[in-house]
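hey m, so remember when u said the tokens were messed up on ur end? i reran from scratch. heres the input so u can diff it against urs
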Amino acid sequence: MLRVEAPAYCPIARPRWKLYACRNVLQETAIHGAEVKSYSRSERKNRKNEGAYIDKDGVARTYDRKKISRKRGGGMKGRGWKYGSGFVDGVFPVLSPMAQDILELVQKGTDVAKVWQSLDSLPHVHDLWDDIVNVAVQLRLNRQWEPIITVCEWILYRSSFRPDIICYNLLIDAYGRKRELSKAESIYMALLEAHCVPTEDTYALLLRAYCNAGQLHRAEGVISEMQENGIPPSATVYNAYLDGLLKARCTEKAVEVYQRMKKERCRTNTETYTLMINVYGKANQPMSSLKVFKEMNAIGCKPNICTYTALVNAFAREGLCEKAEEVFEEMQQAGHEPDVYAYNALMEAYSRAGFPQGASEIFSLMEHMGCEPDRASYNILVDAYGRAGLHQEAEAVFQELKQVGMRPTMKSHMLLLSAHAKSGNVSRCEEVMAQLHKSGLRPDTFALNAMLNAYGRAGRLDDMERLAAAMEDGGAGAAAPDIGTYNVLVNVYGRAGYLDRMEAAFRAAAARGLAADVVTWTSRIGAYARKKEYGRCLELFEEMVDAGCYPDAGTAKVLLAACSDERQVQEVTAIVRSMHKDAKALFTL
């Protein structure tokens, strides 16, 4: 008797249900198994075709294997594929033994030609199509894009099957994830040439592919094409657009699209509001996120656990731990059990607020409630101690991460580097960098920026400049610099009083096509503020605004530090008030 194990779908990360189904008979409890013996032959035959799944409420259900291919969740040919999930009507496709073998084959196979030859030799049984599609969907759940392309292109170019929309959509999605836009577009053209009608999922996947690649004008073209063809963009399409804009950090465009949805009377849903809460949260506008949340409740749209977590995250980014805790409690009162993502968001709030003990207490609470911390939980705790200058505690959490069997990622090393850099322990930073190389990880830009900061804080400017030069030249496979790299250089030179070097670093960033952000400008203004060059500070402030960079509280603080009399303080106060009004106008719903 063959036994298949597959994780059943549940939108909340915990608990993870396990589903056990057999090819010939449904395994149930021992008592029920004894009762089976008393069934008649016809009853046993009926039970032979039964399968099992866990529904969205966590309740065990059964279904008829013969009927499901024409009813719910089995045969997916011609039915399309649910965007963003890969499930049909909430039923998780349990892989048959044949599908398990196919899955193992394509996961292990590196030679596409050999995999295709193996697929050619599969027996042509009536349920082969369902097995292959279920394998492709499972690969998507595993985020294995290359095997998806191997399977779907075999269907498209080699097999005797006539590909349907699910095959084309999976290919467009896989190529979009890999940012191979020309291939995604060629699949879309092949879809049209095959007279296969694109669904809203097809357009949604194209939109997300363009947004991920930063091709926003082409994303707008997809919306225009839908409208020209008389297909009004639905919430699914607009949500995919918003998701792409969120990942691309295009806040203003996302707000514009959201306003367009409301203007066109497109029916917004929970996902729409969750995305907009995230958009405003990542733009450091938590009160705008709260406004969206209230608007959502006002129209009777029920928030889910992802919505609450997004709002907790919005407050967490600004270190507003009390507000984050209020939302966390409201989430529990609404009947949602916090998962690891919700706990991590609350931990982040205490970390950003400078309360590492609060983050540690939430970590302990999570364990006490039976919610297992993930790698991100440990990273947040390392960061919390690092921000507070408690490098020994950060080191202890890092070691605990390894002791529980988790492998530290690049981010884990980067956060530990930052913690030791802040304490001025450059030798330990160099040890961490050596560990990183030993682990086979290539230091990314963030890790190298942390090392630059460590050298700068310790006054080892020669080492800092040597590393920065290696990043610019690409020496020894070093990661390319980003604006954060130049922010470190501008800040270090400015604090040391080397204004010429600071200006040279600012120009070098512009020469590489890197736009100065609020940190760059504020560090530059701060250098002149320390020398009480009030006029120069105002000139730089005007340049900053003209460049389209909006000041923050840190900018106002350094401007005030440049003042040497009451008149200048009044001028700066007026400027701060005006920029606050501009910021409010920018993010008006």
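this time it looks ok to me. Strands lie at 3-7, 18-22, 50-54, 60-64. if urs says something different then somethings off w ur setup not the seq
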